[in-house]
Amino acid sequence: SAVVIQAAYKGMKARQHLREKHKAAIIIQSTYRMYRQYCFYQKLQWATKIIQEKYRANKKKQKALQHNELKETCVQASFQDMNIQKQIQEQHQAAIIIQKHCKAFKIRKHYLHLRATVVSIQRRYRKLTAARTQAVICIQSYYRGFKVRRDIQNMHRAAT
């Protein structure tokens, strides 16, 4: 009887310890994946900024060359520069919106991937736990039946 109780207690503790290990592993894995995605995002953001700067500088240089070729008056040049600045600001705002949507998409995709992974792990773990629980219940019922039959035999022997 004491051995059975001890075995059940040790089994319970082992399952608790295993659950804690699984939780810790999930947290470590998700944190690492998040860090890796963040590093990738920073590199992507840096590359985007460089491309934007080069594009804007090239665009501005082209506008300046056109300006010099046409030899427009000062008023026209000022107006054109103002339009260029306005276009650059609009393009900058558009780039910010695109970056925001791209980042949100990647984060959402990453979240869904992590969620699917966690659900898959949880299903496997629950399936494993259910099988073990059924095995424990089966063993307990066989043991209890054996114990009752033995007690009945002892009672019959004592009665005769």
How would you describe the overall organization of this protein?
- With 160 residues, the chain is an all-alpha fold.
- It has one domain (1-114).
- Helix content is 97%, strand content 0%.
- The chain contains 2 helices and no strands.
- The protein has helices spanning 2-70, 74-159.
- Helix 1 (2-70) packs antiparallel against helix 2 (74-159).
- The longest helix has 86 residues, at 74-159.
- The radius of gyration is 36 Å and the shape is rod-shaped.
- 0% of the residues are buried.
Short structural summary:
It comes from Miopithecus talapoin. This protein is an all-alpha fold and 160 residues long.
Rounded to the nearest angstrom, the distance between the terminal CA atoms is: 28 Å
N-to-C order of helices and strands: HH
Low-pLDDT residue intervals, each spanning 5 or more residues: none
- Report the radius of gyration as a whole number of Å: 36 Å
Strand and helix map with partners:
Elements: H1 2-70, H2 74-159
Which short descriptors sum up this protein?
2 helices; mainly alpha; rod-shaped; 160 residues
